[in-house]
């Protein structure tokens, strides 16, 4: 008698990652409060700043200037990416860890790579939807002229992708900082708010104190906002930047450096279970 051993092969990590992406997107849209906040926040903030600062046709910069809605759109795009990636993941993963979901998932045959690919894919999908809604609102409601050249949209694409990657990996790495899921929002949200205030999201970056500009230049949000400004503002607006140029090379290098650093930190510090589980 011969014994035939049958091996059950699991799909590859990429295929499982795509499945996890579908799961992550569905889970995200079931959390209605998170959906409303992440999707509506950039649009609401753009409306507030465009309305308050743009009264009586006021503009930014030397005459004829740039309408406030157009100037603040890049910052809102950058902060939207940060909300969808860094803030969303840093909080949601901490909650999953705290309620034991990560521990149970780690005990299944699912490769860890598939789990993280699912997170990245989910962030990418939600960021695309959020960005499309914000661009539509800016063009249709506030009359912002969108770019018309392939070069501008190519710049938009790489800033968007690098910003999303950096934000996602930073969110995964930072998710180990909160001690519990309940404290995650209190730990993560202040970090996001501070970065928004010092990174040229709510104010003209060149008008901020020099020490604040230097601090902001260490973090990716400032570079995402600057990269987006290079897409949606006229070419001569780069003279308003601290360096006098858009610094595309520095933007790409710093966003990539944050993504790599966050990946290395995340690999060493990511936990599948709570601290008190040993």
UniProtKB/TrEMBL annotation:
Highest taxon above the source species: Bacteria
Residue spans crossing the bilayer: 34-53, 73-95, 116-144, 150-174, 186-205, 246-267
Claim: Transmembrane is one of the keywords in the record: yes
Protein localization: Membrane
Signal peptide segment: none
Annotated InterPro entries: ABC2_TM (IPR013525), ABC2_TM_bact-type (IPR047817), ABC_2_transport (IPR000412), Nod_factor_ABC_transporter (IPR051784)
Pfam family for this entry, one: ABC2_membrane_3
Keywords: Antibiotic resistance, Membrane, Transmembrane, Transmembrane helix
Membrane topology: Multi-pass membrane protein
Domain ABC transmembrane type-2, chain residue ranges per copy: 33-273
Name of the protein in its database record: ABC transporter permease
The species this protein was found in: Cellulomonas fengjieae
UniProt lineage: Bacteria, Bacillati, Actinomycetota, Actinomycetes, Micrococcales
């Amino acid at each position: 008698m011969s014994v035939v051993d049958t091996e059950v092969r699991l799909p590859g990590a990429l295929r499982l990652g795509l499945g996890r992406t579908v799961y992550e997107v569905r889970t995200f849209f079931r959390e209605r409060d998170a959906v409303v906040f992440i999707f509506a926040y950039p649009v609401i903030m753009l409306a507030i700043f465009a309305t308050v600062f743009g009264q009586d046709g006021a503009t930014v910069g030397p005459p004829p200037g740039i309408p406030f809605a157009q100037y603040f759109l890049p910052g809102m795009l950058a902060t939207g990416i940060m909300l969808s990636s860094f803030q969303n993941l840093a909080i949601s993963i901490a909650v999953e860890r705290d309620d034991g979901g990560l521990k149970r998932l780690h005990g299944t045959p699912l490769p860890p790579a598939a789990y993280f690919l699912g997170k990245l894919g989910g962030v990418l999908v939600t960021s695309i939807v959020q960005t499309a809604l914000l661009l539509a609102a800016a063009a249709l409601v506030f009359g912002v002229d969108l770019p018309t050249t392939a070069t501008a949209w190519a710049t938009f694409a790489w800033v968007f992708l690098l910003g999303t990657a950096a934000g996602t990996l930073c969110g995964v790495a930072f998710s180990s900082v909160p001690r519990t899921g309940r404290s995650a929002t209190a730990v993560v949200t202040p970090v996001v708010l501070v970065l928004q205030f010092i990174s040229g999201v709510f104010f003209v970056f060149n008008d901020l104190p020099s020490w604040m500009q230097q601090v902001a230049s260490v973090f990716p949000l400032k570079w995402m906002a600057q990269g987006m400004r290079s897409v949606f503002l006229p070419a001569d607006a780069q003279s308003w930047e601290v360096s006098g140029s858009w610094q595309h090379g520095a933007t790409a290098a710093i966003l990539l450096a944050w993504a790599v650093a966050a990946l290395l930190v995340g690999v060493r510090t990511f936990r599948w279970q709570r601290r008190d589980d040993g």
